[in-house]
Automatic annotation (TrEMBL):
<dbReference type="InterPro" id="IPR004358">
    <property type="entry name" value="Sig_transdc_His_kin-like_C"/>
</dbReference>
<dbReference type="GO" id="GO:0005886">
    <property type="term" value="C:plasma membrane"/>
</dbReference>
<keyword id="KW-0472">Membrane</keyword>
<keyword id="KW-0808">Transferase</keyword>
<protein>
    <recommendedName>
        <fullName>histidine kinase</fullName>
        <ecNumber>2.7.13.3</ecNumber>
    </recommendedName>
</protein>
<keyword id="KW-1133">Transmembrane helix</keyword>
<dbReference type="InterPro" id="IPR036097">
    <property type="entry name" value="HisK_dim/P_sf"/>
</dbReference>
<dbReference type="InterPro" id="IPR036890">
    <property type="entry name" value="HATPase_C_sf"/>
</dbReference>
<dbReference type="InterPro" id="IPR003594">
    <property type="entry name" value="HATPase_dom"/>
</dbReference>
<dbReference type="InterPro" id="IPR050428">
    <property type="entry name" value="TCS_sensor_his_kinase"/>
</dbReference>
<dbReference type="Pfam" id="PF02518">
    <property type="entry name" value="HATPase_c"/>
</dbReference>
<keyword id="KW-0812">Transmembrane</keyword>
<dbReference type="GO" id="GO:0000155">
    <property type="term" value="F:phosphorelay sensor kinase activity"/>
</dbReference>
<keyword id="KW-0418">Kinase</keyword>
<dbReference type="InterPro" id="IPR005467">
    <property type="entry name" value="His_kinase_dom"/>
</dbReference>
<keyword id="KW-0902">Two-component regulatory system</keyword>
<feature type="transmembrane region" description="Helical">
    <location>
        <begin position="144"/>
        <end position="164"/>
    </location>
</feature>
Amino acid sequence: MIKSLRNQLVVALGLLVSVIGVAQGISSYQLSKTGMSALLDMRLEQVAARLRDGLAYALPKNPARGTQDDRDVVAVVWKPNDPLPFRTTDPSLHFPRDAKPGFSGVVVNDEDWRLFTRQEPTMTIQVAQRSSVRRDLTTEAATLTLWPIAVLLPLVWIAVVFVVRRSLRQLNQLGAEVRAIDMGHLQPLPTVGVPTEIAPFIHSINTMIERLATSIEKERKFIADAAHELRTPLTALQLQADNLAPHIAPGNQERFQELRKGIARSGKLIVQLLRLARADAPMNGAPLSRVDLAEVVTGAVADVLPIAIARGMDIGAEEMVSAHVRAVETDIGMAVKNLVSNAVRYTPDGGTIDLRMRRDGGMVWVDVIDDGPGIDEALLPRVFDRFFRANPDVEGSGLGLSIVKAIAARYGGDVTLKNRGDGRSGIVASIGFPVEEVKESAAEAASASA
Ligand SMILES: Nc1ncnc2c1ncn2[C@@H]1O[C@H](COP(=O)(O)OP(=O)(O)OP(=O)(O)O)[C@@H](O)[C@H]1O
Ligand SMILES: [Mg+2]
């Protein structure tokens, strides 16, 4: 059973063409044989007619023996009342003089002959040819007619493979397009220029994509709404706790502080949930600007500097590159800040954190390198999962990297997290965005007007 549609079509069309080709070959072979036979018969008749018209007298009376070729036509002329032939081109052959007029088959000297007998009032003319010679001639001619088919058949197979491949390329293309669908940005597949047979298929996929997008959007909106709704009572709770603080008996202070920490943790979780819902939301015409990535990097370092200094850490940005990204500035800021704050959070006191920028083709990357404990290789693939936390001892909601990933995807960028490959422990977290290329003259004009 052939599973591939392409192979099925190639085999079916190829076999069909082959059967037609073979049938055509057989019929032209047979037709050519019959035609050749008729031609040879005509030749015998013509020779007989010419003998009647006087050629008989031109034949030598006693042809020398052994001068006749096997392939030659043999002619015998009889005169009435004469027991021996009047003329013969081969005296060793004795054809029956009384053979029926017209064509007949006779055996002479153990050989089959095709004989044409013509009765005239003044003479009997017989013209004959060996059946084996005739067979050879007809087969030779018929075989020649098979050549074009023998040459064309393989060519037709090649053409069938080519045409079927070409026709099905559209399906392969569609498969690649479906595989490339970005779950973060569900877009309908293009329908322009699509063959009518494939169009309904694409419409079904597009309907499915639409439904999927609606359901994902509903889920996102529900999370955003829930987080938003939770924020108000939680803020009230926090206020109540703040008001209560002076009235808590010293013996209950420790438990009360735990309660406040719990409220604060829930607050942070809600804030992260809201950020994630926003990063996942469609752009919907949000105002984009030309974001200077180097500025974002120095800003992120400045933000965590007080904590880093307090913990005796060495944090710095080096190897800066001038590159701009077209985006909502707060998005890019949040993405870089999340990576930097992870580095600070998971690196022990006194550690070192380096930020570097680099260009790679059309992308600009920010690497955040720390010398903390790193992450178990087995857990690395899961760090971008929502709520996944590789190190439960340190406080966190497990949403920071999901937010970073959503922001990177939103602008056609990417984010990766790897253990350092230079023999030291620690993480290299990298985020890359497509660079906004501006023509030099435009950039100069912009800087001149600034
Ligand atoms: N630089 C790093 N070094 C070691 N582990 C890290 C580093 N960055 C991330 N991780 C691990 O990846 C997990 C997921 O990180 P993520 O930023 O998504 O969540 P979080 O930091 O726990 O919480 P949040 O960022 O939402 O406050 C973290 O819990 C931590 O275990
Ligand atoms: Mg984090």
